Amino acid sequence: MQTPTIILSIAGSDPSGGAGIQADIKTISALGGYAAAAITAITVQNTRGVTSVDYLPGPLVAAQTEAVLGDLHPAAVKIGMTGRADIIVNLAACLSKYPDTPVVLDPVMLSSSGHPLMEPNATEALRTELFPRCRLVTPNLNEASFLLGKNLHTLQDMEQAATELSQHYGCAFLLKGGHLEGDRMTDVLFDEQTHHFSSARINTSNLHGTGCTLSSAIATFLGQGNSLPEAVRLAKAYMDKTIKAASQWEIGSGYGPLCH
Ligand code: PLP
Hints:
By secondary structure, the chain is an alpha/beta fold. The chain has one domain (6-246): Ribokinase (UDP-N-acetylmuramoyl-L-alanine:D-glutamate ligase), CATH 3.40.1190.20. It is 39% helix and 22% strand. It contains eight helices and nine strands. The chain has helices spanning 20-30, 58-72, 85-95, 122-130, 141-148, 155-169, 210-223, 228-246; strands at 6-13, 34-46, 49-55, 76-79, 103-105, 136-137, 172-175, 184-191, 193-200. Strands 3-2-1-4-5-6-7-8-9 form a nine-stranded mixed sheet. It binds pyridoxal-5'-phosphate (PLP). Residues 11-12, 14, 19-20, 43, 45, 50, 80-81, 108, 111-112, 117, 208-212 line the site of pyridoxal-5'-phosphate.
């Protein structure tokens, strides 16, 4: 008998299969893990954008999470779109019963097309209830700027921001530099010390679900026993592979999904 590496994704549903829980399940499965999934919200969207978001009640999100944590004992948890204070507070209470399970959190605030995926009063709950419980938080530049209340323009700004956020919330932070200009993209991890991860920019608009893919890949590699910097390195290499393959794909008429 064998138990595969079980990863629980807690995230929103994207019916077009590019982002959210669908991207997470594809990623975890492609990397050899077993994917369990607890749903926080139902979005209506396709490659052209998000048209609506309905959140599930917080206790129902926590009940799904508890059902998986109490029985399947996942090696790691990935949290994506949480959306609402009620969901965050219930989730945090449930996760507090499993302090040894590493949590990777993508603080999803906006869709790639610019639609809000988090209610304005939920960010405070995210900071106080969930960040301190995480092994890693993975904001993009806009999310990190919002969290710090200042704009980030350079690699130096990112290094300082990752350190500040990590020291403030007591968990590692990976700042994703994809929105900075240039031929190369650099992400900055602060986990007691600073690490850089640099890759060539791939020219494609098929980037829907990159944040979801990266965070669920990191959770899978962590669950498989890698150190955090090694899990980030492996996850970035996987994401590059899926973006390169997706650049040859035509799915829908807007921003297409990654190719897992
Ligand atoms: N989660 C859901 C349900 C989404 O719909 C989206 C974006 O549309 C995201 C997360 C974030 O997507 P990305 O990985 O492109 O940042």
